[in-house]
Design goal:
Blueprint lengths: L2 H15 L4 E2 L7 E5 L2 E12 L7 E7 L7 E10 L4 H13 L3 E5 L9 E8 L4 H28 L2
Antiparallel strand pairs: 1-3, 2-3, 3-4, 4-5, 5-7, 6-7
């Protein structure tokens, strides 16, 4: 990624997204990604709760495992407050189809809940608004699937 693009993205995030939002306090577990069949660890520097402007959204600022860019930004939406293998199976196809990552992550470490998050890296300022809408739609689709399953079980 070009340096000026990274600088523009950093200032956009600082001035437009996290300006008046709540930072999630405490230490955060790293997240990982697989690069060329090798797992790489991304240390989570900060997590911001974006619920004031977008309900169930979080912004992850992580240290990159390589020198450039130094920081990477991921937008995440919570699909479920308590994750399970069953919920992962329901959400997996949508995540793969839309080139998104699905992670089980404890955002609030003192509360022992592992949330199911749909996550995507923000590479350009223009990606942000489209990504918010895409994640909202996928969350709604996921919730619809859960509702159908619930109704099937109740009507059994």
């Amino acid at each position: 990624m070009h340096d000026s693009t990274q600088t523009d993205l950093k200032s956009f995030i600082q001035n437009e997204i996290i300006k008046n939002v709540k930072k999630v306090r405490g230490k955060h577990a790293p997240i990982s990604e697989i690069v060329n069949s090798v797992p790489k660890t991304l240390a989570v520097e900060k997590i911001y709760d974006l619920s004031e402007s977008n309900k169930n959204f979080f912004l992850f600022i992580v240290k990159n495992y390589s020198k450039t860019p130094k920081l990477r930004y991921f937008l995440a939406i919570s699909l479920a407050n308590n994750s399970s293998d069953f919920l992962v199976q329901i959400a997996k196809d949508s995540a793969i189809k839309n080139n998104l990552k699905l992670i089980q992550y404890s955002i609030y470490r003192k509360i022992f809940r592992i949330q199911l998050l749909l996550i995507k890296e923000i590479n350009e300022i223009e990606d942000y608004t489209d990504l918010v809408e895409k994640l909202k739609n996928l969350r709604s689709e996921f919730r619809g699937k859960l509702e159908k399953i619930k109704n099937l079980v109740e009507n059994e």
